[in-house]
Amino acid sequence: MTLPPSSRWSGDHLELLDQRQLPGAVVFMQLHRWQEVAEAISSMAVRGAPAIGIAAAWGVVLAARSGDDLFTAIRGLRASRPTAVNLGWALNRMRAAIASSGLVDVEALAAVADAIQSEDRLLTQRLVDHGVSLLNQGSRVLHHCHTGAIATGGVGTALGVIAAAYARSMLRHAWLDETRPRLQGAALSAWELGCLGVPCTVIVDGASGLLMRRGEVDAVMVGCDRVAANGDVANKIGTYNLALVARAHGIPFYVCAPGSSIDRATIDGDAITIEQRDAEEITHAKGVEVAAPGAQAWNPAFDITPAHLVTGFITEFGVLRPPYREVLSALPLPNQL
């Protein structure tokens, strides 16, 4: 099965894959206003840091087509999810295009949004190629959350490495954390790998330690929503626990980080805003209450993995090793305002 794109521009509106409907159905939302894009990002109809940035860029184009104030639209889109730096990175590129022209040129803005999406296809392929080079034949890789093609504009990041490694006869099996509380691993990662014919098994998040103790994992590969200047990583909640368990068992822990996810303006992980989401994502499952009535829940969407737990960053520039502050500062990244 061919995987659908995360989004596609149809000339006068944005078609956005509604990831909330997967794996049951492939449904594209028809979006005509930037406010609809902001809601899709906030509600996680679209998720995955690169895909969020691409959708936001097209949201600015929709604002221009509707004659809305573009700077109001950019502020609204930026506020839709606070942790993923790709969102702000893409919106900064759109803002720069507005400022350089001095006029609202819809076609020019559409060209910038299309360039952001096209560039992501190229850079994710480069990232994937570097990631596959780290694996030995017959590797078993553990993955957390979802970082596949529909989370990007291209082939995916960490899950893209897994899929490519299998296609090149380097991967024996993929282990997928179910990824609480929204189950992106069980729903999205397993669906993507199933479509591609990659052998995989879903485990509960807390099973990774036992799996490693039994010698069933050769490497851990995850994505990220933001990398601070010192190499601290913001990623889906549960990533920090996984990094600690991997370190305890001597298993390499790799973070796939496209350049648009590296935020050199943020000094370390403590300076990253952690999104807090609705408690019902924990207390309810598909609208059915599963927690005790009245139970309180704390629901941070992300956690921070300290740089010293990261074996290497897989990027379009190659595989980066410590010392991360020096290595990250030398990358040819665009300014992130």
A few lines on this structure:
The protein is α/β, with parallel strands linked by helices and 337 residues long. The protein has helices at residues 34-42, 49-66, 70-78, 85-101, 106-132, 158-167, 184-196, 208-213, 239-248, 280-283, 324-329; strands at 7-9, 14-17, 28-31, 139-143, 171-177, 200-203, 219-222, 226-227, 233-236, 253-256, 284-285, 288-289, 302-305, 312-315, 318-320. The radius of gyration is 19 Å and the shape is globular.
Descriptive labels:
337 residues, alpha/beta, Four Helix Bundle (Hemerythrin (Met), subunit A), Rossmann fold, 2 domains, 3-stranded antiparallel beta sheet, 38% helix
Explain what you see.
The protein is of the alpha/beta class and 337 residues long. The chain folds into two domains: 7-123, translation initiation factor eif-2b, domain 1 (Four Helix Bundle (Hemerythrin (Met), subunit A)), CATH 1.20.120; 125-329, Translation initiation factor eif-2b, domain 2 (Rossmann fold), CATH 3.40.50.10470. It is built from eleven helices and 15 strands. It has helices at 34-42, 49-66, 70-78, 85-101, 106-132, 158-167, 184-196, 208-213, 239-248, 280-283, 324-329, and strands spanning 7-9, 14-17, 28-31, 139-143, 171-177, 200-203, 219-222, 226-227, 233-236, 253-256, 284-285, 288-289, 302-305, 312-315, 318-320. The protein has a seven-stranded mixed beta sheet with strand order 6-5-4-7-10-14-15. β4, α6 and β5 form a beta-alpha-beta unit. α1 (34-42) packs antiparallel against α2 (49-66), α3 runs antiparallel to α4 and α5 packs across α6. The radius of gyration is 19 Å and the shape is globular. The mean pLDDT is 95.
